[in-house]
């Protein structure tokens, strides 16, 4: 019994609960994404730079008193928002979520630039990893940890072009869930594919 009591807090992941937010929350997250895009795009003269710094410091002062622990912030817990409202996640929107698989659509933005107009290679594992988390959740498996995640980069990943990522569970063996996914453009061309092993945590395991 003690194990069950502590399972939600100390073993594995806690039960995931969606968050209710004010309408302005999604707008704020999008405005912050725009700031991220600009932060990696601009070359500002000194006066604009000073103004941007002062305004950013003011924003930090507005937000800072409201910091709450993990699981209390709505970030990442608003499924209808791009990236579930988390700035870390790619701003993609889930359009299919069931045991057959999960499909999500979106674009890589200027913030995700690697070089020569292509998305940074490190952003693809982030996209796939989060999709795999959702995929196994939709399949009815407990939230698990990624043991490995393999990406094949088949074509350059373009910025600002609508893309679609789709994953499904391939097999389950005890604690192990094997999942794979593809990233395609709207013409159905394969840009990347990925497969991963997710391992269910044991009670008491962080
Ligand atoms: C629109 C609707 C939206 C709704 C939203 C609602 C809910 C949202 C739900 C979910 C949230 C969504 C998304 C979540 C987001 C993403 C999930 C990402 C998860 C992560 O991103 S998490 C961070 C990265 N991750 C780590 O930080 C892992 C560090 N690591 C460890 O924590 C351990 O390493 C662990 C636990 C993996 C295993 O450790 P362990 O001691 O428990 O188990 P052990 O080693 O015995 O392995 C057991 C069996 O797996 C095999 N095995 C293990 N590793 C292997 C490998 N690499 N290759 C091949 N086989 C492997 C063994 O060979 C054995 O196999 P066998 O049983 O057959 O012998």
From TrEMBL:
Key words, A-Z: Apoptosis, Cell membrane, Cell projection, Cytoplasm, Fatty acid metabolism, Hydrolase, Lipid metabolism, Membrane, Transit peptide
CDD domains: PaaI_thioesterase
Organism (species): Rhodococcoides trifolii
Reaction equations catalysed: dodecanoyl-CoA + H2O = dodecanoate + CoA + H(+); (5Z,8Z,11Z,14Z)-eicosatetraenoyl-CoA + H2O = (5Z,8Z,11Z,14Z)-eicosatetraenoate + CoA + H(+); hexadecanoyl-CoA + H2O = hexadecanoate + CoA + H(+); decanoyl-CoA + H2O = decanoate + CoA + H(+)
Keyword Transcription in record: no
GO molecular-function terms, A-Z: hydrolase activity
One matching Pfam family: 4HBT
Record-stated family: Belongs to the THEM4/THEM5 thioesterase family.
Domain Thioesterase stretches: 116-191
Protein name (record): Acyl-coenzyme A thioesterase THEM4
Coiled coil regions in record: none
Membrane topology annotation: Peripheral membrane protein
GO biological process, one term: fatty acid metabolic process
Localization per record: Cell projection, Ruffle membrane; Cytoplasm; Membrane
PANTHER family: ACYL-COENZYME A THIOESTERASE THEM4
